[in-house]
Amino acid sequence: MRPARSPITTHVLDTALGQPARGIAVKLEVAEGGGWIALGASQTDADGRVADLLAPDSRLEARTYRLTFDTGAYFGAAGRLAFYPYVEVVFHVSAPDEHHHVPLLLSPFGYSTYRGS
User: Fold this and answer.
1) How many domains does the chain have?
2) pTM of the model
């Protein structure tokens, strides 16, 4: 049986090092009235994962959400230069009863994301 988790999760892989990106601050927000409302914040664990942005029993709504990753602090702490000081991933939840996993593949000069499982 899988442990309870937030209905929105993420993980970050540092593709330049070929390992999980530990200690990246991640913020979750929802679009509201032309702005953003904070819903949760956490930090990637030793496996590069964040499973606690929202309480496990939280109910999502069909809305637009944003994950912001503090990549500048992550690279700076390791003495590495980075082109992107932060990464924002905006996505729309159309099936609020489903789990939404949004991974980030990261390097100092590029990133990509996708809907995971």
Assistant:
1) 1
2) 0.94
